[in-house]
Amino acid sequence: MELWYTEDQNNILRFSYRVNQSLHVEKTPFQHLAVLDTVGFGRMLVLDGIVQTTVWDEFIYHEMIAHVPLNTHPNPKKVLIIGGGDGGTAREVVRHPRVEKAVMVEIDERVVAAAREYLPELSVELDNPKLDLRFTDGIKHVAASRNEYDVVIIDSTDPVGPAVGLFSREFYSQVYQALKEDGLFVAQTESPLFNTDVLARICKDVGAIFPVVRTYLACVPSYPGGLWSFTLGSKKYDPLEVKPEIIPALGYRYYNLQVHRAAFALPQFLKEALGQG
């Protein structure tokens, strides 16, 4: 008998993944957590019924959410990661040579515990001396920070459950205050195909606060529609003006200078939805 895991995208569309076996299931104090061994995608992390990452294609998402902002800022010494309990974003951040310290704030300790046990490829750097891992509310941490970080990376789940507040204009204003005078931030901002309205609202909210706002895309096959968006808000630096000489040679699997530049070329329907003509 074949086993399948099905994610409900909306009331007209579902995505299914063939499963070998369920490795771990629990209800944490914050959300439903599952780790599945799938055919093709390998081990998969699922939170509240939504696929978060798989060992087969996680490098695409994590390289793009981390290295685009880190290489846009010329000297990202101190970095804040909100969420990212699987450890993939932290892994990419701490290997960047100009990063001296990364603070990772994850609200759900059980996600990290599951990643340590079942996703060692992602969680491998969670004990790196550069990383300060804290289990607390990311929104509260940001609200209490002032002029502290060069780069903030919001690696959140979808805007449901504990992540709802990470998609508000009020939160983006607090991120602005937490950043240094030339700081910048990036957030995962959902599917540009199925969540266009959410992405458009985010861009409008970020644009009301930051002088530089750019949305970029990456292909993440395990995510609904295969196309995913990230939105960057910057006080000073424009990711379209990144200098090739500052990009370190880190043996990327997806990211490179050409991908960095091309990721900001948006299809016409999305430019119009975001008010860019």
Automatic annotation (TrEMBL):
Keywords attached to this entry: Polyamine biosynthesis, Spermidine biosynthesis, Transferase
Catalytic activity reads: S-adenosyl 3-(methylsulfanyl)propylamine + putrescine = S-methyl-5'-thioadenosine + spermidine + H(+)
Which part of the chain is the PABS domain? Answer: 2-235
* UniProt: spermidine binding residues: H62, D86, D155, S156, T157, D158
Protein family (similarity comment): Belongs to the spermidine/spermine synthase family.
Against NCBIfam families, the record matches this protein to: MFS_SpdSyn, PRK00811.1, speE
Q: Describe, as the record does, how this protein assembles with itself and its partners.
A: Homodimer or homotetramer.
Protein's name according to its UniProt entry: Polyamine aminopropyltransferase
What organism, scientifically named, is this protein from?
A: Thermodesulfitimonas autotrophica
Classification from the root reads: Bacteria, Bacillati, Bacillota, Clostridia, Thermoanaerobacterales
Q: Which gene encodes it?
A: speE
